[in-house]
Design brief:
Elements (H helix, E strand, L loop, with lengths): L18 E8 L5 H15 L4 H21 L11 E8 L2 E8 L23 H8 L2 E6 L5 E7 L4 H8 L15
Antiparallel strand pairs: 1-2, 2-3, 3-5, 4-5
Helix pairs in contact: 1-2, 2-3
């Protein structure tokens, strides 16, 4: 649970870049993904982030944390290293970072054709690349890596238009007027 809910800042305000909104260590076990999703949802809801963006971020968090737990194994084969989720703001974007103990970079898909249609898994990073404004990975300074993605918020006018009722289409001349 977030402990700084009394802070007077929003995800997209003009504060210092790379200010962490939240950082949470996660177990290197399958229950890490639901814990990370719940944490992201709570943090972003407290900061009044648009619900559509929250849902998108939750999906990306789930995919990245699942990959970290499945594939984030040290060279020695152990899973003792930590997995962590960090939510940051940078400029006008929300950044999600998932760290794991492996230095092996993920295999980012190059397009839908690069995913095996018959495989039971392997579409997580394809989803992330489709949903995020930007994505990537970087090796840690001494060990491990961070896989990240960034999301741009909807423009205020777009959000207002999405919540506003649609105007009825202009009616053409009726049959009687023709």
């Amino acid at each position: 649970m977030l402990t700084d809910s009394g802070l007077v800042h929003d995800v997209y305000d003009q504060g210092p870049p790379w200010l962490p909104l939240a950082r949470i260590p996660l177990p290197h076990r399958p229950e890490a993904a639901p814990k990370a999703r719940r944490h992201a949802r709570e943090v972003l809801a407290l900061r009044r982030v648009d619900s559509e963006l929250i849902a998108t971020v939750e999906l990306a968090v789930s995919e990245l944390v699942t990959n970290a737990v499945r594939h984030g194994i040290c060279l020695c084969g152990c899973t003792r290293g930590t997995v962590s989720l960090t939510l940051l703001r940078t400029g006008g974007r929300l950044r999600v970072e998932v760290a794991d103990p492996s230095r092996t970079p993920p295999r980012w898909p190059t397009g839908i054709e690069s995913v095996d249609a018959e495989a039971a898994e392997g579409r997580g990073l394809l989803l992330v690349t489709a949903l995020a404004a930007d994505w990537g990975d970087q090796a840690g300074p001494t060990r491990g890596k961070v896989v990240w993605c960034e999301f741009a918020p909807a423009a205020p006018a777009t959000r207002a238009a999405a919540g506003a009722p649609r105007a009825a289409p202009a009616a053409g001349p009726s049959a009687k007027e023709r």
